[in-house]
DNA sequence: GAAATGACTCAAC
DNA sequence: CGTTGAGCCATTT
């Protein structure tokens, strides 16, 4: 779905070592106020074959969200993030002030550009 | 095509 | 802090 592609395009721009919240991604993808769609989109992502860095998208509380019974990817997400240099506090949360992604307009344009390319390919 | 679902968020108690 | 309820809307059944 195009809505998903938008979301994926944005998520793919999140640099290593940084994270973004669902609401933030939704906003950047032009889905202001619809963070649930981001969550839903990521839920549909195949964590194995997709090139979308789903692990870099967390909830507004700075915690790593996860779908109930993901095949062992529960601790995996955190492991990946830690490997990228992101530190978790004693409560298993991330300091958003420190790691939250500050997207630049350029990045967003790139994301949308990729999105359009995909659009043409599909067409 | 109506009803249920979902990795969310925000505001109010 | 925690819990609760409302808002959101594409995808699935």
Question: How does this model look, in words?
Answer:
The chain has 123 residues and is mainly α. The chain has one domain (2-122): Orthogonal Bundle (Arc Repressor Mutant, subunit A), CATH 1.10.10.10. Helix content is 49%, strand content 3%. The protein has 6 helices and 2 strands; from the N terminus they run αβααβααα. The chain has helices at 2-11, 22-28, 35-44, 73-83, 96-99, 105-122, and strands at 20-21, 57-58. The protein has a two-stranded parallel sheet. The chain is globular. 28% of the residues are buried. The mean pLDDT is 88. It binds a DNA duplex (13 and 13 nucleotides) through residues 1, 3-4, 21-23, 26, 31, 33-45, 54, 57-61, 64-68, 70, 77.
How is this structure best summarized?
The chain is mainly alpha-helical. Helix content is 49%, strand content 3%.
Produce the secondary structure layout:
Blueprint: H1 2-11, E1 20-21, H2 22-28, H3 35-44, E2 57-58, H4 73-83, H5 96-99, H6 105-122
Parallel strand pairs: 1-2
Helix pairs in contact: 1-3, 1-6, 2-3
The protein binds a DNA duplex (13 and 13 nucleotides) through helix 2, helix 3 and strand 2.
Number of strands: 2
CATH fold-level label: Arc Repressor Mutant, subunit A
The helix-strand sequence is HEHHEHHH
Walk across the major sheet and give the strand order.
1-2
CATH architectural arrangement: Orthogonal Bundle
Q: Work out the helicity level.
A: 40-55%
Summarize the biggest pleated sheet.
Answer: 2 strands, parallel
Please, how many helices? 6
């Amino acid at each position: 779905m195009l809505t998903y592609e938008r979301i994926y395009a944005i998520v793919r721009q999140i640099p290593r070592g940084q994270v973004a919240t669902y609401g933030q991604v939704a906003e950047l993808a032009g889905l202001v106020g619809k963070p649930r769609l981001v969550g839903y989109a990521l839920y549909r992502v195949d964590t194995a074959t997709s090139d979308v860095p789903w692990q870099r998208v967390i909830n507004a509380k700075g915690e790593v969200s996860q779908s109930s019974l993901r095949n062992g990817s529960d601790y995996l997400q955190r492991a990946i993030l830690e490997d990228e240099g992101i530190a978790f506090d004693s409560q298993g949360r991330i300091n958003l002030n420190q790691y939250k992604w500050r997207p630049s307009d350029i990045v967003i344009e790139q994301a949308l550009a990729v999105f359009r390319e995909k659009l043409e390919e599909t067409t």
